[in-house]
UniProtKB/TrEMBL annotation:
The name this protein goes by in its record: PLP-dependent aminotransferase family protein
InterPro entries recorded: Aminotransferase_I/II_large, HTH_trans_reg/aminotransferase, PyrdxlP-dep_Trfase, PyrdxlP-dep_Trfase_major
Coiled coil stretches, renumbered: none
Keyword annotations of the record: Aminotransferase, Transferase
Domain (Aminotransferase class I/classII large) ranges: 18-318
Lineage of source species: Bacteria, Bacillati, Actinomycetota, Actinomycetes, Streptosporangiales
Top-level lineage group: Bacteria
Source species: Actinomadura bangladeshensis
Molecular-function GO term, any one: transaminase activity
Amino acid sequence: LTPGRPDLAAFPRERWIAAARAALRTLPHDALGYPDPGGVPALRAELAGYLGRVRAAHADPGRVVIMNGVAHGLSALLALLRAQGGNPALAVEDPTSARQLPMMESAGLRLARVPVDEEGLDVAALARSGARAVLVTPAHQYPTGVVLSAARRAALIAWARDVDGLILEDDYDAEFRYDRDPVGCLQGVDPDRVVLLGSVSKSLAPALRLGWAVAPPALAARLRDHRSRSDLGAPVVEQYALTEFLRTGGYDRHLRTMRRRYRARRDALTAALGAHLPAARVHGVSAGIHLYVELPPGCDEDAVVAGAARMGVAVTGARSLWSAGRAADAPPALVLGYAGLSETRLVKAAELLGQAVTHGADG
């Protein structure tokens, strides 16, 4: 039940091979040299159209910069923020991804942890932090699964305008929504104060190392310049294959298939948790490929994680995702990924997890 891992067995191998073959068939020889640091122009154009249609983004090819995933895009943006000088601060959600924190700390920025509640990022607390840049996951907050409310979205945009700030929007899990209509990205509301970060790591496979940043024109130019000086661009053949996959509608069809599959797996896991962990509170069910499960009072989170591991079920405890100041007050919880297991295996995993929780109650 490791979170953040898509169903890699579902990668559309034959359709991807067909897209790559179609792209290579007409690709000029010169296109196989070192790429444009901002990405292949044809891919930037296809992504601009796709993101405008699906995410209500204000995207044109000049704003789109192809990156090697969200982490790469974020790393480049943090380097540019650091280069501005003045000991800049970056506000980060609390809780947040433990994987991203070391990268952000290594960028040399001062991190300001900002609480997340049932409406998402606490914008009033953000204003008190003194930061002028913030990283948010408004579509499906990691790990809690909260969707940023309409009021908070408006307040966040107003904050950015008031402080001349920058919002780094990680469009986390936006592709997978099940019970609610999709919410447009923040970047479409204020494209001059929001950078939209996305990738195909969840929708296709992390191994492709393809993502994007949709940035204000001046910042997009700085990102392209940064890429030209720091690396030699994203993989060319993969960029052209994704271009073809988008152009022919293959990407849309694949996402429709995966939404149906993940919805069925989510339903199986939530029902099984209700049967085997009736006292637990399950959050984040309306989108994404993970659940945030608050354990019953009195449970020892570490003991549950260890007990589940002994039974062959890998689960992630949530305490390490909170700041030190809030971890002590956070209820014991687990982050459960469900994308990579069949419904039958998810039901069995929930049964074993229920046994681990029973043994982990009261320490």
